[in-house]
Amino acid sequence: MSTNKKKIHYAWWLLLGLSIMVGLAKGGIMTAGGLFLTPVTQDLGIGMGSLTLYFSISSIVTMIFLPFAGKIIAKYDIRTVLVTAVILQAGSFAMFGLMNSVWGWYLFCIPMSIGSIFVTQIAGPVLINNWFKKHNGLAIGIMVASGGIFGAILQPMAGNLIASEGWRMTYFILGGIVIAIVVPIVLLTIRMSPKQKGLQPLGLEVEINNTEDASSVKVESNTNTGISAAIAKKSGAFYSLLLFFFFITAISSFGQHVAPFAMGLGYDVKFAGGAMGFWQVGVLIGALAFGILSDKIGAKNTAIFAMLLGLVPIAILLTVPDNSTMFSLAIGIYGFVVASLGTLGPLLTTAIFGNKEYGQIYASAVIGLAVAGIVALPGYGYVFQLTGSYTYVLYAIAFMLVINVVLIIMAFIGKKKLVQAGHWK
């Protein structure tokens, strides 16, 4: 037993693999997409709103496919699913480099979105929920922070590559890097359940090793308490959470427009790539901070703090956007705030509805994420196309941050009603 206690629990190795996968897929593909908007629109003569419409198509595909994603992960080998998903996502992203018409983005964003659902949205929270009964918030924070770590390296790199090698070659390079690194990592480290390694989840193992058999049964059952998906989906708490996902995703979606926003103010693509590097550093720090904070003061208080802090970068971007130092600082704080989407989304779901049918509830609630992408991403592009400015977009984001504070409070009031009605079992 003493030798076993000294070993690093496999959950941490799984988290390392997940972090590399999510970090590269988000930092190298998802958030890098915004850097290509201005060069592509200028080179091919496409309107910003027309090109960003592919984000909307991606969100529609995500919304349609999300209900099936949880079932696919549960039914098929997780490694086969994720390898296929990575190839779909990164391969389709690379194919953008061959396109000469906006229809190419509309077409290839479909397989890219299907792959992305598994790689960046569903697999991480589900696997962490399976493997971590202790340090759950920290684990999710580390996974989300990985997007910041890789993004802080890849965003400036992508900006420099676009400037030196062109946007086509940069699509190929980023897509190729993600496939070459992530596929072996998935095969080596990812496992669906601790049972596949003959282990207990981290935290539960400690309890079992230090209690009698009868007590251990109780510990295991306590980790699966909560509200059923059928009851949850009819509750006000669920709709408050769904709307929270909608607005926080709309707020986060501005990341794809940071580069055009910067270039519209007269900054060049290299500066825009550097600013996105600040965004990713903010995501890195925010993800870790929110994971630790939620373990200490709870997901509710942490989420409210994050939303109120989001008003700070909006104020800076509205008042002194021409100051390059303040612009970069604001983008860094903005990245810190939007880290709450990846970190606090899963943690709020668990805090409100428990673990009983977490996967089903979370997969349903994040439909709000997909709907936001349909509306916000092209919407911001069309506002810029029509007005030549992102000022109205920034005012709308400030409004959404305030609305989200209200929604968080309403969600926990709804939880209290469900518990009082005896639905928490």
Q: What layout of secondary structure does this protein have?
A:
Elements: H1 2-6, H2 10-30, H3 37-44, H4 48-75, H5 78-95, H6 102-131, H7 136-165, H8 167-189, H9 204-209, H10 213-222, H11 229-232, H12 236-252, H13 258-264, H14 269-297, H15 299-309, H16 311-319, H17 324-353, H18 358-365, H19 367-387, H20 391-420
Helix pairs in contact: 2-6, 2-7, 2-8, 4-6, 4-18, 4-19, 5-6, 5-8, 6-7, 7-8, 7-14, 7-17, 12-17, 12-19, 12-20, 13-14, 14-15, 14-17, 15-17, 15-20, 16-17, 16-20, 17-18
* Outline: globular
CATH architecture title: Up-down Bundle
Largest sheet: none
What is the fold named in CATH at topology level?
A: Growth Hormone, Chain: A
Give the number of domains. 1
End-to-end distance: 35 Å
Number of helices: 20
H/E topology pattern:
HHHHHHHHHHHHHHHHHHHH
* Strand percentage: under 5%
Mean pLDDT: 83
Number of strands: 0
Alpha-beta classification? mainly alpha
CATH homologous superfamily - what is it?
MFS general substrate transporter like domains
Evaluate the radius of gyration. Answer: 21 Å
CATH classification, class level: Mainly Alpha
Keywords: Membrane, Transmembrane, Transmembrane helix, Transport
Domain Major facilitator superfamily (MFS) profile: 12-416
Membrane topology: Multi-pass membrane protein
InterPro entries: MFS (IPR011701), MFS_dom (IPR020846), MFS_trans_sf (IPR036259), Proton-linked_MCT (IPR050327)
